[in-house]
Amino acid sequence: MSRIGKLPIKIPANVDITCSGPDITVKGKFGILRNTIPDVLGIEQIDGTLIISLKNKTRTSRALHGLYRTLINNMVTGVSEQFQLTLNLQGVGYRASVQDKYIILNLGYSHPVKMLIPEGVSVEVVQNTTINLKACDKEVLGLFASNIRSWRPPEPYKGKGILYKGEIVKRKAGKSGKK
Length: 179
Description:
By secondary structure, the protein is an alpha+beta fold. It has three helices and 13 strands; from the N terminus they run H-E-E-E-E-E-E-H-E-E-E-E-E-E-H-E. It is elongated, with a radius of gyration of 21 Å. It starts with a helix and ends in a 15-residue tail after the last strand.
């Protein structure tokens, strides 16, 4: 059995979990998340904990065991606490702003980059160069952050670009000139 899959999931008091066949719904303070579990896995709810069990022990079912336990745990954490990511814009003239349902990024192109903010994701811009993203769905949050970052990934010579909070860009020396 998977070491991660064996771990029970603690259900907070403000979270409600409903299982109907292979479908699981998690409701909490910050939203509702749904997922479908493969037939090789079973779910038991005992005394405020959720246990994912294996019905048969094939190689693929053991691989899915840990994966779906982590996915369900992320759903429970997301609806009770929310996930947060912070992006920093580093570069001269790089700034961001939020207008209606769009985030507008000025990243040194001849035009501003306008991106639609996905449903369920909240965006806050601090001092024009720090973007705080919050969502209950970890997958949607990570995908949106990587889409923003794909416009200007950090480059190793000047260190400019869009960086995750705490990320360190390993710098290169560049040209040394004529000898």
